[in-house]
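User: Hey, my collaborator sent me this sequence without any context and asked if I could get a structure. I don't really work with proteins. Can you help?
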Amino acid sequence: MTNTVALLQRLRERLAPVEAAETLVDQVEGRQDNARKAAVLLPLFVDNGVLQLAFIRRASSLRAHSGEIAFPGGKVEATDTSVVMTALREAQEEIGLDPTLVEPLGLLSPVFTVVTNYLITPVVGFLPQGLGSLKLQESEVAELFQISLPALADPAIAYTEHWSRDGQTRIVHFFDYETYRIWGATGRILAAFLELCTQPDTPTQLETSAHCFPQ
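Assistant: No problem. I've predicted the 3D structure and written it out in C-alpha cell form, which is a compact way to encode the shape of the chain:
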C-alpha cells in the first residue's frame, strides 16, 4: 500500500489541477475552434492491494464506436459547470458511479479526435472506497471491467501504428489485454497516463514500469 500512496501523490503533483481545465481546453481549442467538448473519467481504485483502472465496453447497438473500449464519459452539457462535472455526471449516468466516491486527482492534456471532432479532457479520479454499487446503462454500456496498472504497463501488450488521414500522419496507440483491444482516443489517453506515471522524477533517476506500479 505504501507504493500505492506514493503513486497517488505523484499523480496529484504531475496532473494538471482541476482549476486549470478551461486553460487546457483553450490551448487546444485555439487550434480546433470548431471542436465539440467532452470529458472522460479514469476511475482508479485499489483491489487486493493493487491499483486498478476501470473501463467500459460500449454497447454494440450504438451508431458510433459500438463495441469499443472506452472510459466513462461524454459531451459537455450546457448545465455542466466544469469538465470534472461532465466526467462525473456521465460516469453516474453510464455505470451508476456515485460522484461522492470520487476524489479528482487532476487532468491530463485534452485529446482531439479527428473523425468525430471532439476535444476530450481526461479527468483522473481516485475511489478510496472502490467502485461501490453500480448499475450499467445497458443502452450504452455492454460491460464494465478492470485492469491492474502493472498489467497495463506491461510493454508486451502495447504497440503503435502510423496512420495517415488528410495528408497528416498520426501515431495510433494499441493495448491488447486478454480479449480486449484498447485503441483510438482511449489508447492515446491511456498511453499519456502511463507515461505520466512512469516518467522519472529527475533526469538521472531511471525507473521501470515494474518499479513504478505497486504489485
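In plain terms: The first helix runs from residue 2 to 14. You can pass these C-alpha cells on to your collaborator as they are.
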